[in-house]
Structures are given as C-alpha cells and as structure tokens.
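Pasting as-is:
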Amino acid sequence: MQDIIVVGASAGGVEALQTVVAGFAADLKAAVFVVLHIGNGLHGRSHLPEILMRAGPLPVSHPETAEEFCQGHIYIAPPDCHMTLGLGHLHVFRGPKENRSRPAINPLFRSAAEVYGSRVTGVILTGMLDDGVAGLAEIKRRGGIAIVQDPATALFPSMPAHALQQIDADYIVTVPEVAELVSKLATVERVATEREEPMEKTLLHLTCPECRGPLWEKRQGRIVEYRCRVGHAYSALSLAREHEETVERTLWSAAVAIEEAVEIAEQLTPELGDGAEEDILKKRAQLKSIQKMLENTEPKG
C-alpha cells in the first residue's frame, strides 16, 4: 500500500502541482509531501498552500517541526527550510543546502525511503537541473515506486529527463495522470523487496564551492553525489554549476578591486613617483582581461 506520496518540482512546478492536486479525491488514503524549489534566500511564508488549497479538495499547509501528519493532507516544505519525515511526524529545519537549494527534494525523498520503505511513491515533475534524482533512486532501492513526468510534456524537462537517465522509473506519465495513478496505488497491496547496492566513498582533492571544505564522492549504483563535511551536497551537474557561479562572483570581485586600485594609483601618481604610470597600465590590462572573461561567461538559466 503506497500511503506515503512524496513529490518534487522546480521551475514550472506551481502549474503542475495545481493540476495534480485538482485530481485528488477528498478521501485520499495517503499523506502527500511536496518540495518546490522557490528561490534561494526566500524567507517568510509562501502562498503555495493557499494556491493549492483553491485548486483541489485536500487541506494544504506548511508544517511545523515535529508535527504529526495524517492521510488526506498535503504538506509543503516551508521557504528556506528542508522537510524530512520521521515515524508519524515531520521535521522542518534550516540545514545545509543540497543541490544549491533549500528546501531540496533529495532530503525529503531519502528520509521517506529510509523510514517507510516500500510504502513510498516518489514523483518527479518539471524542473531544471537534477535535484530529486538521488532521492528517487533511494526510494526505488528501498522497494518503493518511482513516477516521472514525461519530459516531452514538461515545461522544463531537465529534471524528469535526468531522472529517467539514471533510474528505471515504474511509470512515465503526464501531469494530469499523476493524481489518479498515485490514488490507485495507495489502495493496492503489493510485495516489494529492497535492493542491495554497496556505497563507495572517496575523499577528493576538490573543495566545496559553498564553504571550501573538502569534498567526498559517494557512488551507489548509477548515482554519484558529492558531499562536504558541513553537509552541502551536490550532484555532478549542480556541483559544476555552483563552481561556475563561484568563479563568476570571484571575477566580479577582482574587477572591482582592480578598478579601485587604478583610481588610487591615478590619484597618488605624484606621490608614487617613477613607475606609477607603468603600474597603472598593467592594472588596466588585467582589468581588460577579466572583463573579457566575464563577457564570455554563459548566462545562467
């Protein structure tokens, strides 16, 4: 019986979730838990519970930590907080970001798989990059069911496409089909077994782009993740993207510093004496080089 439903979405997710919850019956025999990426750094209360409550018959809320959950209710991860499952209750906390996000999908999916095993149905909807893929793989490993939106129907196909590349999904569906499918699965008895996959962990010479701590590579089946001592976690795709943005931020800082150095040198030329003009020219050349690199930086989607 699949009475624990976990759903992950990112870009385009509000519209997709509205369609999903509109298809639920008021007597759904399952609890539903949702993580939607809503932008890093957003604090306070989002309006997603109210939006989804208007779309369907089920109550929707941001949970409090240690809150007990019940069937026939939809729980949304609050802004800037991870949401994980315990035995009969939820945890809400501001832990390290995973895949550059908080809330992130993987912590919810992993915790659900660890506590509820084969009772879990995981759903990946529209979104960018690949958060949720490792968590969905863990659900499959523990005997649960994996449902992925058909990328051809997704507003942003990256997240479901990466899930299908790395996971043998049980169902590939359109968004309007999700509610009926998970509702049916919630009432069907099934026999499932866990799959053993050894974990390989290797310390790398790379550093975490968030905190500069050492990174460990974790391999399990087809899933590869990178995690630092603090707890920041990345897929290969999100690690590469975060490093790109770190380099860009560093270049902008260097450009500002050199511009200031040129201004100071120009104002103090009489006091600095011989060599000041040559130093200014060198700094201007450095600045041009950095500006050229910034011009060639690809825009982030």
